[in-house]
Design goal:
Layout: E1 2-7, H1 10-20, E2 27-32, H2 35-39, E3 43-45, H3 53-62, E4 67-70, H4 73-77, H5 80-86, E5 91-92, H6 96-103, H7 105-115, E6 122-125, H8 128-138, E7 142-146, E8 155-158, H9 161-172, E9 183-187, E10 192-200, E11 205-207, E12 212-218, E13 222-233, H10 240-260, E14 267-275, E15 281-287, H11 295-298, H12 306-314, E16 330-337, H13 354-359, E17 363-366, E18 369-371, E19 377-379, E20 383-391, H14 394-405, H15 421-426
Parallel strand pairs: 1-2, 1-4, 2-3, 4-5
Antiparallel strand pairs: 6-9, 7-8, 7-9, 10-11, 10-14, 12-13, 13-16, 14-15, 16-20, 17-20, 18-19
Helix pairs in contact: 6-7, 7-10, 8-9
Bound molecules: adenosine monophosphate and glycine.
Adenosine monophosphate is lined by residues 120, 143, 145, 155, 157, 186, 188-189, 193, 272, 284-285.
Amino acid sequence: MKVLVVGNGGREHALAWKLLQSKQIEQVVCIPGNGGTASMERCQNVPLAVDDFEGISQFALKNGISLVVVGPEVPLAKGITDYLQAQGLMVFGPVRAGAQIEASKAWAKALMQEAGIPTARAAVFTEAAAAKSYVKAHGAPIVVKADGLAAGKGVTVAETLTQAEDAIDAIFQGQFGSAGEFVVIEECLIGQEVSVLALTDGLTIRPLLPAQDHKRIGEGDTGENTGGMGVYAPAPIATPELMARIQTEVLEKTIACLRAKGIDYRGVLYAGLMIAPNGDFKVLEFNCRFGDPETQVILPLLETPLEELILACVQQRLGEMPPISWKHGAAATVVAASGGYPGEYEKGKVITGIDSAEATGATIFHAGTKLNQQQQIVTDGGRVLNVTGIGENFKQAIAQAYAGIKYIQFEGVYYRRDIGYRVLSAE
Ligand code: AMP
Ligand code: GLY
């Protein structure tokens, strides 16, 4: 099989890497891919945009692509699956109607309320004055969310009424483009977050190992939010009892509700959950795709060949598959970021030490990197590399990731030194 992976992050490098471990996969093409996918054997980058559906479809049809795996949410929300399916291609990732579960927070909230899925109390507004009087009536802290895709920047956890009001103004003044036509205001939940990614063929839904990421830039989970500075799996907070409840109270209910709406959802359903100190949980958000960086710790632990699971989803026979099999132990990823991220940063810095880092046994998934004209790997984004360790336990996995990352050098490199502190102290 020749597989096409759409996207250019650490998630897509991990997907390509995992797919290439299978003898069934002859070649992986990444559109557009990054420096890591360009450097793997049997892997090739093609410089097309992720929303150039026509270009992607022509390439796939001309080059004998049997399966397209879509990484990011933007092309899914724009209907890449609908488009490529209409050309006769096999695609993993939900159709546009299904991707609304991530692309519209108001739509997702209505679905959760309709299906009786535990979630934060919320109200949706189409104009600022009503949103502000709701916020005044409920008080701070309170959470203000732009409705649509905002690259992770559309949510404000407001500690004060002024912050909440400013966030409402920013949204209605169009700072998030068409993401700002609605605002969702919801109660502020406390607890620990966990990411439960599940594979579904529209009928059956099976969770992958739960993962927990560190979203803040600074040690001790302080400072600005980022796309994720580190992650580990399986997250111990999601006990087997909790996972069983999430299966029936969230995942199965969601798929049933989507079906009732006539949406045949095949792909990843990712539930971001808040687990309260008393063990109760609520859904914060749904995503319609694999998580990044969660995928970089989940896939190294997956034993069942990934393409078998993906094909079972696309061909709607996930229910016939044996249980998903996992390696024993744990995985952890530490992210090496550009100095200044998540604010301004420079690109084009030459990266050295990747071979030495890999020689320690760590696995390196590239995110914001590319090959320059001299065939050097240079930085090309905020989150640059994901250094992943695997071990019998978190101590070993985290130690391997840190043993690897200390060889990584580029001007301004930054990484957190405390990834996994919660699980290490529990272990
Ligand atoms: P979302 O994109 O909706 O997951 O929001 C991004 C981040 O904002 C989440 O990962 C949480 O850290 C935070 N967040 C979202 N909703 C809430 C909430 N109701 N209470 C507290 N934090 C929240
Ligand atoms: N790790 C958060 C996300 O993929 O949305």
